[in-house]
Write a sequence for this structure.
């Protein structure tokens, strides 16, 4: 199992950002990765941006061109490219890495891009501002905590959509269980309803044998789509 046929350098860069480093260090790694990021995720056959955009587009009522979307942890703009192809034109992005934002800016796909470290600071947006919010790839162990869900809901319009993804590989299973518990609690409280939870077998290529699903050489992942309930729910007590 020599890293599942991926170039060693790619494997090392991917492993570095998923290792248990503290957030400031991790953001520095992303800054440094920005220039090679798209090459590396192409080598990984990373399908999350495509799958998330397709899922959101499927749930989203027409027309799309004027709908306001927030791409959280937007990285270099991979999700924006997929959303743009599906007719979404009004995109804002936030990310914790200045290096990634610089790349995203060069795509010309975003109306506004802001630096924001999710989990430590609120989103730079007013309440009920967006028709849809996407968080693709950042919900994972040591990255964005599942406690951010209410903040994502805050900036979403009633009746608006949230599209979230996480990985289902062994080292992320504890996080995934926490995330699903938090998703379920918000559903029970009437904050949103689940439209889709789609498990995807070939999410991206595994960087180690241990992480791979039954020796396929790939890890699996999941796309969730929720709709914020149109009636604001009353806070308890």
């Amino acid at each position: 199992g020599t890293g599942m046929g991926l170039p060693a350098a790619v494997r090392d860069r991917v492993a570095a950002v998923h290792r248990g480093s503290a957030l400031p260090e991790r953001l520095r790694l992303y800054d440094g990765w920005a220039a090679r990021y798209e090459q590396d995720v192409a080598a990984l056959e990373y399908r999350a941006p495509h799958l998330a955009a397709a899922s959101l587009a499927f749930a989203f009522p027409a027309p799309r061109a004027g709908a306001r979307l927030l791409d959280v942890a937007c990285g270099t703009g991979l999700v924006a490219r997929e959303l743009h192809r599906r007719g979404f034109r009004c995109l804002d992005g936030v990310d914790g890495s200045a290096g990634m934002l610089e790349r995203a800016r060069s795509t010309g796909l975003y109306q506004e891009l802001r630096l924001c470290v999710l989990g430590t600071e609120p989103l730079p947006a007013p309440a009920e501002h967006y028709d849809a919010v996407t968080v693709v790839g950042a919900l994972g162990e040591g990255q964005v905590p599942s406690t951010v869900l209410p903040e994502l809901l805050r900036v979403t319009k009633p009746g608006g959509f949230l599209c979230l993804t996480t990985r289902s590989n062994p080292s992320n299973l504890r996080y995934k269980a926490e995330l699903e518990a938090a998703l379920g609690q918000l559903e029970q409280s009437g904050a949103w309803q689940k439209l889709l939870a789609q498990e995807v077998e070939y999410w991206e290529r595994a960087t180690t044998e241990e992480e791979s699903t039954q020796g396929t050489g790939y890890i699996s992942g999941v796309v969730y789509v929720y709709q914020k309930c149109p009636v604001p729910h009353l806070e308890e007590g």
Notes: The helical segments are 8-18, 23-33, 37-44, 48-59, 78-85, 98-107, 149-154, 173-188. The chain has a mean pLDDT of 91.
